[in-house]
Structure formats: structure tokens, C-alpha cells
Amino acid sequence: MKHSALSRTRRILPLALAILGVAAAAFVARRPLLMSAPRCLGGHWHGCYDTENGVVLMTLVALPLAALTVWALASGRRAAGSAEAWRMSLAEVGMVYGTVPFVWMTMMPGPAAGIVDGRVSVVPLRDLVTMGTFGIVGNLLVFAALGFFAPMRFVAMASLPRILALGAACSVLVETAQYVLRLDRVSSVDDVLVNAAGAALAGLASRAWWRTSTEVPSDEPRIENEEALLT
Q: Does residue 18 sit in the same domain as residue 88?
């Protein structure tokens, strides 16, 4: 009975923490978000999806849909006999829901996009001092969801160095795209460092729920008794 209750708590806790975090962020930023509400609710692209406030607002609006998707995926897996239905479903949706909005914001073009050439900053820590608190926190969050949920979904990602490498690789792709597409943004090595650090820190936060090589893959039937291997 105790083991069942503990297992249920471990399944629910990540979702509860995610919802609490989103709710806290929404409360803190409620005033600027409401400024974008008329444009977003009116279906206007300009003033909504091309602004950070608008993207954050629409991310919050999409939260019920994300939760419904988790439930649908988990229900299907449970019907198929999966023992890790909720964890895997939450991880899959969480990676997408928590990463796409931040990547969208980093790919927003500046006022001189398409006019000026791409700019690169390859000196470590030079841009870090000019980011400010908001910039550092924002960069830490870009791939935080990926770092948090990837090791919960994939056994191969259940390693801090691999999470760090994943965050760095994804960040390099974003910085490269900013440069190639001439978005009037600076492709900085400091962005890569902070993005990777954010993924690693988030991975540490989800350490208790990582998948390990000793677990039976959720999409394969469990063998209740080792003697079944001999029959």
C-alpha cells in the first residue's frame, strides 16, 4: 500500500510542480500579459505572436490543451499495459510545451532583420555581464524543459553530461539559425553556455524521476517472473 501511494505521488509531483511554476509566472507577469490579450484574442499575428508577452500569454492559454494531451497519451498507454504511462506522456508533452515558446522568442527578428549581416560573439563571458538578471534567467529557461523532461523519457539521456551536451547542441543550432537567417541578433557563445547550464540544472531538479537502464521499457510488456524466460 505504501509503495503504491509513493509511486502515485512520484507520478503526480512533476505535473503539480510544472503547473505551480506556470501559475506563479503568470501571476508575476499578469499586467504585461494582459496588454497583449486584445491582440491575441482577436487572432492578430502582429502584436501577439511577434511579441514576448503575446507568446507567453498564448503559452498559458494552451496549458489546458497540453494537460489534455498528457491525459490522452497516458490513457492510451495505460490501456496498452504500460507501467510508465504518466511519466512518459508528461515528459513528451513537457519537452515540447516548455521548449517551443522559448525557441520561438529567441528566433524573433530584430528591427533590422534581413538588412544587417549576422553578428557573432565568440569571447566567453564577455556578453554575460551585459545580459542583466532578466536576460540570464531567460537564457537559463530556454532549454530547461528539455533538460528536465528528456531524462525522464529517454534512458540514454539519464546522464548530466549528456543533458549538458544536449542543451549546448540545441543552443548552437538556434544561434546558427539566428546568424544564417540574419535576424538582427547576436549569436553569442555566452548564450550557448547559459542555455546548456539551464538544461543541466533542470535535469538535476528531475533526478528522482530519471529513467534508468534497470527499468523495463514502457512500450514492452513486463515479465513478472524470471522463470517465464525458460518457458
A: no
Cell of 19: 503547473
Q: Is 60 left (phi over 0), alpha (psi -120 to 50) or beta?
A: alpha
Q: Is residue 74 part of a domain?
A: no
Q: Tell me the whole-structure pTM to 2 decimals.
A: 0.80
Query: Distances from the Cα of 201 to the Cαs of 70, 143, 161, 206, in angstroms?
Result: 24, 10, 11, 9
Distances (CA, A) of 36 to 39, 52, 59: 6, 9, 12
Give which of 45, 187, 193, 190 is closest to 116, Cα–Cα: 187
pLDDT per position as a tens digit, 136-187: 999 999 999 999 999 999 999 999 999 999 999 999 999 999 999 999 999 9
Residue 51 belongs to domain spanning: 1-61
Q: Which amino acid appears at position 42 of this protein?
A: G
Q: Are residues 37 and 146 in the same domain?
A: no
The reply to whether 168 and 215 lie within a common domain is yes
Whether 147 contacts 200, CB under 8 Å:
yes
Handedness of CA 92, 96, 197, 29 (dihedral sign): negative
Q: Residue 60: its pLDDT value, please?
A: 86
What Å distances lie between residue 158 and 55, 104, 151, 174, CA to CA? 30, 26, 4, 23
Beta bridge partners of 173: none
% of the chain at pLDDT higher than 70: 82
In a domain, 111, yes or no: yes
Judge whether residue 223 has pLDDT over 50: no
